[in-house]
Design the sequence.
């Protein structure tokens, strides 16, 4: 049932602003004259409606001497009151009403689609008047858009002529076109059958949108089986698109099919939804390909022992066990085929598994696969039976040795040693082993240590986690070695290659993270909260050392300069957790410029101060050096880190690779 939203009950009174003639000779009379009207759409700029619905128009003027509403062809005046739930309003048409009405309020039925349907208002007044007509809303200024209408003097009267444009949406009339892939039109309306080969494509175009008054916005193409009852049809192609042109591929099955087009328009707040179905008056006859279905391409074994047999077309789903029709021979000796399945992501491949899998050593012998052609379920989607084939060579998978790559890493949290490999490791090879640690050895600070257990990392299968028999510390020198044989294998059954001794690098667990690398400009990770005198802090390229050393910065560095004995004050923009009673180790690289005469800099962790003294005998000017110290947090806090050189004297100090970590060095 049509939902009528446009009732006179919902008419919205337009804002009326009465003005005066700007002609100096005009004198406004004492009588009250104004002009006003409203419609079903109120102040909406777009006045749209669907066909066979009605809109209401009300003249609210005062002082008119003549008034007319004029409507175009395809519209009719209705006699009110009107129901809000009628399907059809034809019985309310005022017979012989013509196209002009002097009624103040009219109801107009629209029976013709036209985006420019004019409804004209003609009013005559004895006096001049003008008014402001709201025509929309300006979202930028958040205000009403006003169109000022003025009456025009014609003879002895003042005339207002105004045309309201109504956008009338027509009923959808579905139409279409079919073209071949060369772009040539197919006269499907005057032929019974379109003959196709399986996999052929046709271009379908929805022409319904060429009629701009109905404006469908969705197209559904359906190709379906032919059945007496629609409920029994089965779709082989079902495409729902916003676009009007689509290429349909007939590759689901062979046989005779019909099709339909459904052209739709979605409902809006003001316009009803509409759709029309067009039954395509032609049969699509899809025949099987003329070529044979045969084994095509290289047959190979995968790392998981699956033998992949490619064929020339996609296969229909298997409905029974066909393994007895296949045979695999190794050096002329049969290996029973246990299962045959389709590749779930490529229907043109069969997967064979053997009761006794192939081994890498089998690659030195001829390995072949055959199919006897005796099963009716092994067929293509277009129902061509798979041809028999004999002694097709199988490329045997030869496991690739597994190589150690990357840095061996020690985790502080659980003392796990992480070893990276170039292939994913098979956890099953560990669980099946009587001793998965076989072949591994370790040293801690030059003393042999046993490996207690190994496991594959849960988040990265290319990482092996080793645990030793003893507690480890961050400053321990640890090496790991491996000498075959061992039981651990890759997913592809590759064996671990010998490696080591490889040094293990401990996690830094730097509380500061990248902030201690000093790569961001001042004002980002670090702030200069105030310098006295010419004291300055900057992130800069490292200076060229006066004396070479094995210590070198890793990038940009922090420069704290106080040439006049004054000082900059640098502090992190973020805060970091420190726990009471926990010992923290601070490590950094430091360079003292040759002009430095100060003795130390203050380092603050929260409110806790530790001094970096550089008056020891091993401290040298003009040389990059490594510095470490520890402190015990006096209280639990979430605090900043601050560095401040100390006057008096000249301070010319550089820092890089600043690390704060829970102290885990060996006692």
Sequence:
């Amino acid at each position: 049932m049509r939902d009528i939203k446009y009732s006179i009950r919902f008419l919205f009174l337009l804002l009326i602003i009465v003005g005066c003639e700007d002609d100096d000779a005009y004198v406004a009379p004492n009588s009250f004259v104004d002009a006003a009207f409203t419609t079903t759409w109120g102040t909406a700029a777009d006045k749209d409606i669907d066909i066979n619905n009605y809109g209401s128009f009300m003249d609210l003027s005062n002082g008119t001497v003549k008034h007319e509403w004029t409507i175009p062809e395809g519209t009719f005046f209705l006699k009110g009151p009107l129901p809000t739930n009628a399907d059809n309003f034809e019985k309310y048409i005022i017979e012989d009403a013509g196209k002009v009405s002097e009624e103040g309020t009219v109801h107009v039925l629209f029976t013709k689609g036209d985006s420019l349907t004019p409804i004209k208002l003609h009013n005559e007044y004895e006096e001049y008047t003008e008014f402001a007509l709201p025509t929309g809303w300006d979202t930028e200024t958040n205000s009403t858009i006003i169109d000022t209408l003025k009456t025009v003097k014609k003879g002895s009267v003042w005339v207002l002529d105004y045309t309201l444009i109504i956008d009338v949406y027509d009923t959808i009339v579905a139409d279409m076109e079919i073209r071949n892939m060369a772009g040539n039109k197919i006269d499907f309306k005057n032929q019974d059958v379109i003959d196709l080969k399986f996999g052929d494509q046709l271009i379908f175009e929805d022409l319904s949108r060429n009629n701009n008054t109905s404006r469908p916005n969705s197209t559904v193409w359906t190709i379906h089986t032919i059945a007496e009852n629609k409920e029994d049809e089965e779709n082989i192609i079902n495409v729902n698109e916003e676009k009007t042109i689509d290429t349909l591929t007939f590759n689901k099955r062979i046989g005779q099919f019909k099709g339909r087009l459904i052209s739709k328009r979605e409902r809006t707040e003001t316009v009803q939804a509409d759709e029309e179905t067009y039954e395509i008056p032609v049969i699509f006859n899809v025949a099987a390909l003329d070529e044979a279905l045969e084994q095509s391409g290289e047959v190979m074994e995968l790392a998981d022992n699956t033998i992949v047999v490619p064929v020339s077309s996609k296969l229909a789903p298997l409905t029974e066990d066909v393994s007895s029709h296949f045979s695999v021979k190794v050096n002329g000796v049969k290996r029973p085929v246990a299962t045959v399945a389709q590749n779930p992501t490529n229907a043109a491949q069969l997967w064979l598994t053997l009761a006794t899998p192939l081994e890498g050593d089998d690659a030195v012998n001829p390995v072949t696969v055959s199919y006897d052609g005796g099963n009716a379920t092994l067929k293509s989607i277009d129902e061509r039976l798979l041809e028999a084939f004999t002694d097709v060579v199988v490329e045997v998978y030869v496991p690739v040795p597994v190589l150690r790559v990357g840095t061996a890493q020690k985790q502080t949290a659980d003392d796990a040693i992480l070893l990276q490999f170039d292939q994913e490791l098979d956890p099953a090879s560990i669980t099946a082993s009587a001793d998965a640690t076989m072949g591994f050895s370790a040293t801690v600070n030059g003393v042999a240590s046993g490996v207690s257990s190994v496991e594959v990392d849960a988040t990265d299968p290319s990482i092996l986690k080793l645990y030793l028999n003893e507690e480890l510390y961050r400053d321990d020198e640890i090496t790991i070695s491996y000498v075959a044989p061992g039981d651990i294998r890759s997913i592809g059954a590759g064996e671990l290659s010998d490696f080591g001794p490889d040094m293990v690098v401990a996690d830094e667990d730097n509380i500061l993270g990248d902030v201690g690398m000093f790569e961001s400009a001042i004002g980002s990770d670090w702030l200069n909260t105030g310098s006295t005198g010419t004291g300055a802090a900057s992130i800069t390229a490292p200076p060229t050392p006066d004396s070479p050393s094995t210590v070198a910065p890793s990038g940009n560095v922090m420069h704290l300069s106080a040439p006049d004995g004054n000082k900059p004050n640098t502090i992190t923009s973020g805060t970091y957790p420190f726990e009471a009673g926990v010992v923290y180790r601070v490590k950094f690289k430091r360079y003292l410029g040759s002009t430095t005469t100060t003795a130390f800099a203050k380092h603050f962790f929260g409110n806790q101060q530790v001094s970096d003294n550089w008056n020891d005998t091993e401290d040298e000017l003009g040389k990059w050096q490594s510095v470490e110290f520890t402190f015990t947090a006096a209280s639990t806090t979430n605090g900043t880190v601050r560095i401040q050189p100390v006057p008096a004297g000249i301070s010319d100090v550089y820092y890089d690779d600043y690390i704060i970590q829970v102290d885990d060095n060996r006692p």
The helical segments are 427-431. Residues 427-431 form the longest helix (5 residues). The CA atoms of residues 366 and 425 lie 29 Å apart. The chain is about 0% helix and 45% strand.
